[in-house]
């Protein structure tokens, strides 16, 4: 799997990017042999179309790739990636037709089209390579592709090989690569260091729960990322049905996305003091499992009534967020595969986020389009605050009624961040059907948009 651009001096075939409505005009300027060949091939300039153009010797001398229509491109992203697999193996350079404003997105899509998860079966096929288009920062785009591949690999790995210990190993590998500091609090030490809800959720598993704490950078504003690392979620004693448990290897998708974002920040050398906190647990069933109607006391001192052990992600995040808030950084951001309600609200393709920080919300929305990383703002709707207040304890981890589940979960988390600007992402981290540059499986949702918003929000 090669997620890098070809060297600029590599011998390359010219590749013409053709919009559907521009094909006739382009063909009018070509010799009859080219016109006849393209027309006979059935190439129409649609997204997913590609055709090789032979030279006099019979070998290829150029290629065309479809760019569709503006209306069709608005329905998706990474339009060129749809046709990359139909090109002959070799190296290409964009010769014409690609709008400068879309060059970075399409270049990233080309690289991501080469991603394959091959840990257990198969090999990644050799894909056509691209010389980075003019005015595209090739090194930056390669960083984005590598971070996305890291996130996908972590989410795609089954829980048998991606438990709390293996998630810790992935974080340690990232820390070693970028000379970051890392500390891990494991097992009973969680109680000794006042992380009672992380311990409660993870104690039923033979794979010990832990809190991963990574730091990088010594100058600049302080940014803390918190990622939900539930490596498998049975639902605990409120056991999930089989149909809902099938994808629970991805319940550490928040941690995977946070690690991908951290990799971008470190590889690009952003001038920030970065902290990454990942509560890594497995929500299992045993005689030691936490129970419905238990009342847990959090690190912050707030008590939580457990009305569903399957609403465990907010519990482990709460302790980590309380720790993050104690340091009063300049910004805290959490990412989690937290609620099915978010999927009902916006589907699998959008990353819903919550924040009271207007500059961040505006910057994120503006950045998401150029980053090809769609997000959608949801409200911290304060009239719903009483839904998370059960009376017998300060907070309810699973309010009854089934409505506004993503909002009430976000309101729950906000109770643990009182000193710092905060944003929360309730992501899916999974692509349910293959799309250009986005095969079925684990996926990053939000990190590229966040990366684009950080300079404005943190004053970088």
UniProtKB/TrEMBL annotation:
<keyword id="KW-0031">Aminopeptidase</keyword>
<dbReference type="InterPro" id="IPR048816">
    <property type="entry name" value="Peptidase_M17_N_1"/>
</dbReference>
<dbReference type="InterPro" id="IPR011356">
    <property type="entry name" value="Leucine_aapep/pepB"/>
</dbReference>
<keyword id="KW-0378">Hydrolase</keyword>
<feature type="domain" description="Cytosol aminopeptidase">
    <location>
        <begin position="308"/>
        <end position="315"/>
    </location>
</feature>
<dbReference type="GO" id="GO:0005737">
    <property type="term" value="C:cytoplasm"/>
</dbReference>
<protein>
    <submittedName>
        <fullName>Leucyl aminopeptidase</fullName>
    </submittedName>
</protein>
<dbReference type="GO" id="GO:0030145">
    <property type="term" value="F:manganese ion binding"/>
</dbReference>
<dbReference type="GO" id="GO:0070006">
    <property type="term" value="F:metalloaminopeptidase activity"/>
</dbReference>
<dbReference type="InterPro" id="IPR000819">
    <property type="entry name" value="Peptidase_M17_C"/>
</dbReference>
<comment type="similarity">
    <text>Belongs to the peptidase M17 family.</text>
</comment>
<keyword id="KW-0645">Protease</keyword>
<dbReference type="InterPro" id="IPR043472">
    <property type="entry name" value="Macro_dom-like"/>
</dbReference>
<keyword id="KW-0464">Manganese</keyword>
<dbReference type="GO" id="GO:0006508">
    <property type="term" value="P:proteolysis"/>
</dbReference>
<dbReference type="Pfam" id="PF00883">
    <property type="entry name" value="Peptidase_M17"/>
</dbReference>
<dbReference type="Pfam" id="PF21337">
    <property type="entry name" value="Peptidase_M17_N_1"/>
</dbReference>
């Amino acid at each position: 799997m090669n997620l890098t651009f070809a060297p600029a001096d590599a011998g390359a075939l010219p590749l013409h990017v053709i919009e559907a409505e521009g094909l006739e005009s382009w063909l009018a300027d070509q010799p009859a042999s080219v016109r006849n060949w393209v027309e006979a091939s059935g190439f129409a300039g649609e997204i997913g179309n590609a055709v090789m153009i032979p030279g006099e010797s019979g070998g290829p001398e150029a290629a065309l790739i479809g760019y569709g229509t503006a209306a069709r491109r608005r329905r998706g992203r990474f339009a060129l990636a749809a046709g990359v697999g139909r090109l002959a193996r070799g190296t290409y350079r964009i010769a014409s037709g690609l709008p400068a404003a879309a060059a970075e997105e399409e270049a990233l899509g080309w690289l991501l089209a080469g991603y394959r998860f091959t840990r257990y079966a198969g090999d990644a096929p050799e894909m056509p390579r691209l010389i980075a288009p003019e005015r595209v920062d090739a090194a930056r785009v390669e960083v984005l592709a590598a971070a996305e591949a890291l996130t996908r690999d972590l989410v795609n790995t089954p829980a048998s090989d991606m438990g709390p210990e293996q998630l810790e190993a992935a974080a340690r590998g990232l820390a070693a690569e970028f000379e970051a500091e890392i500390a891990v609090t494991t097992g009973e030490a969680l109680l000794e260091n006042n992380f009672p809800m992380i311990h409660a959720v993870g104690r039923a598993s033979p794979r010990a729960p832990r809190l991963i704490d990574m730091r990088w950078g010594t100058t600049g504003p302080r940014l803390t990322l918190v990622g939900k690392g539930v490596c498998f979620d049975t639902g605990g004693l409120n056991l999930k049905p089989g149909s809902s448990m099938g994808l629970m290897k991805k319940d550490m998708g928040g941690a995977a996305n946070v690690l991908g974002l951290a990799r971008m920040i470190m590889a690009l050398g952003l001038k920030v003091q970065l902290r990454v906190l990942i509560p890594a647990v497995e929500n299992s069933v045993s005689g030691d499992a936490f129970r419905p109607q238990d009342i847990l006391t959090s690190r912050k001192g707030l008590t939580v009534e457990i009305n569903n052990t399957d609403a465990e992600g907010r519990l482990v995040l709460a302790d980590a967020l309380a720790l993050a808030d104690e340091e009063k950084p300049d910004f805290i951001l959490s990412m989690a595969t937290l609620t099915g309600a978010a999927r009902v609200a916006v589907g699998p393709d959008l990353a819903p986020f919550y924040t009271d920080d207007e500059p961040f919300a505006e910057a994120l929305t503006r950045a998401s389009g150029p980053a090809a990383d769609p997000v959608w703002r949801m409200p911290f709707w304060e009239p719903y605050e009483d839904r998370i207040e059960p009376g017998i304890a300060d907070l309810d981890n699973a309010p009854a009624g089934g409505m506004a589940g993503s909002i009430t979960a976000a309101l729950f988390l906000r109770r643990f961040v009182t000193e710092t600007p905060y944003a929360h992402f309730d992501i899916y981290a999974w692509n349910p059907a293959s799309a250009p540059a986005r095969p079925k499986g684990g996926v990053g949702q939000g990190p590229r948009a966040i990366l684009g918003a950080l300079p404005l929000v943190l004053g970088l």
